[in-house]
Specification:
- This protein has about 425 residues and is of the alpha/beta class.
- The protein has 16 helices and eleven strands.
- The protein has helices at about 25-30, 80-95, 110-120, 135-145, 160-165, 170-185, 205-210, 225-230, 235, 240-255, 315-325, 325-330, 345-350, 355-360, 375-395, 410-429, and strands at about 5-10, 15, 50-55, 100, 125-130, 150-155, 190-195, 215-220, 260-265, 285-290, 295.
- The strands form two sheets. Strands 9-8-7-6-5-4-3-10-11 form a nine-stranded mixed sheet, sandwiched between helices. A two-stranded antiparallel sheet has the order 1-2.
- Helix 2 packs parallel to helix 3 and helix 3 packs parallel to helix 4.
- It is globular.
- It starts with 6 loop residues before the first strand and ends with a helix.
Length: about 425
């Protein structure tokens, strides 16, 4: 884990080196970015550094906060082993060094051992980002032999009941066994727990669980509202008081445990007043290759209208990264509107997240409404205020609220049909 890094803030280290939608991928991109940042006016991009391989959208879990697209069932066939190896090889040739295998659940693919082994030979630092479901001793031994550097294991909560409720599966005991396997095979114990209104009050128990597991790196990743999490936002967003309590408890735990465990606390965007430098800027250091071969500057970008993203089946990664219209769309600052265009922070935060701007304002070129200088900041304030009201109205705040919708194929097909019907209506108006 010599590549671990963090983004210090107050009083916790916020962000972390491990994958979570809209949070730790962002932190890794910052960590790997050149010491002298590229100014927005720079016409030629640096080489990519971080590649996220979403090798499948299949997943045995049905998490309500999943960052996968809600219409994932309508996408094309998955890349074959050879197609993945071609994409990985071409990405390595143009500079990518860190590789994360994600999904869905990457262990669903029975060729993952091949992808890991071949990637290591190419010179990648390889990360497996997993729920643990599908990882047994035979497979972890093969990953170890193949040179896998790092496994990040996710838990949904410290209790069996909440863990299984959030994922709509009975997986807590399985995950516990996988945690022991990871230690047995001498991997650093890297744990990710996504926080939200339903489990954030269990923060002490989550920390105690991590200590019992002898976790070395813990990411407490507050939900970022993309994909299924945005769909379920009204049920998931914690109150400001819940966040403050969680930070206080985490601070006390960190003070007690010292250097024994590295803890990263990722604050939800909605409770900040300046936007994150999402993936260190569009097309700056980060690439996502989706299960069906689409190449994106971030894992949420395929939802943006008016952009044709290239596919690894049709183009090589060098052209995609340097010359494709999609990857150049939001490079530089010529696309920026006010207040970003004249903001002194534009070289630092790049106007925030293009996908969040689109989701909350309808225009990806707008300032990320998390920023309190944005004319659309009220949208974020209203969501936060709603979370406050719901928290006060609850007679038993720790009691689970039934989420709107689980992430599964049935719900994805239903939502895909609804989205298709809406698009057809708009096109005929």
């Amino acid at each position: 884990m010599d590549k671990a890094g963090s983004v210090p803030s107050t009083p916790l280290e916020r962000g972390g080196p491990f994958d979570h939608p809209g949070s730790s991928i962002q932190s890794q991109s910052q960590m790997l970015a050149p010491e002298t940042p590229v100014t927005p006016a720079t016409p030629r991009p640096n080489n990519p550094l971080w590649l996220l391989a979403e090798v499948t959208y299949k997943c045995p879990l049905h998490c309500v906060f999943c960052f996968n697209p809600i219409d994932y069932t309508r996408y094309g066939t998955e890349l074959t082993t050879d197609e993945w190896l071609k994409a990985l090889r071409e990405s390595r040739e143009i500079g990518a060094t860190q590789l994360g295998f994600s999904g869905g659940e990457p262990l669903v693919r029975d060729d993952l051992e091949i992808l890991v082994s071949e990637s290591r030979k190419m010179g990648y630092y390889t990360n497996l980002i997993t729920s643990g479901i599908g990882l047994n001793e035979k497979r972890i031994a093969a990953f170890k032999d193949g040179g896998l550097d790092h496994i990040q294991l996710s838990f949904q909560d410290s209790t069996r009941e909440m863990n299984d409720f959030i994922s709509s599966t009975r997986t807590f005991e399985l995950k516990s066994k996988v945690a022991k396997l990871i230690k047995q095979y001498e991997y650093p114990m890297v744990l990710n727990v996504v926080l939200h209104r339903l489990n954030i009050d269990h923060i002490q128990e989550i920390l105690d669980m991590a200590e019992k597991m002898e976790v070395e790196y813990l990411e407490l990743a507050n939900t970022q509202y993309y994909g299924w999490a945005l769909l379920n936002r009204d049920h998931l967003m914690p109150s400001r008081e819940q966040l403050q309590r969680a930070e206080e408890i985490t601070n006390a735990f960190r003070a007690r445990i010292g250097d024994k465990m590295k803890i990263y606390f990722v604050v939800p965007d909605y409770y900040e007043n300046r936007p994150k430098a999402c993936v260190n800027g569009w097309g700056s250091v980060f690439i996502t290759v989706t299960a069906d071969g689409l190449v994106l500057p971030c894992h949420e970008a395929r939802q943006l209208p008016g952009i044709t993203f290239p596919n690894v089946r049709d183009a090589d990664m060098k052209w995609i990264w340097y010359d494709s219209p999609a990857f150049n769309k939001y490079r530089g600052d010529s696309w920026m509107k006010e207040p970003c265009r004249s903001c002194p922070n534009k070289a630092r935060d790049f106007g925030g997240c293009r996908c969040q701007a689109f989701m909350l304002t309808g225009d990806a070129a707008n300032t990320d409404p998390v920023c309190d200088l944005s004319p659309h900041h009220h949208v974020v304030l209203e969501a936060v205020d709603k979370a406050q009201q719901q928290s006060k109205a609850a007679t038993t705040p720790a009691k689970p609220i039934i989420p709107i919708m689980y992430r599964d194929d049935k719900n994805s097909r239903k939502l895909s049909e609804e989205m298709g019907a809406e698009n057809k209506t708009v096109s005929t108006v």
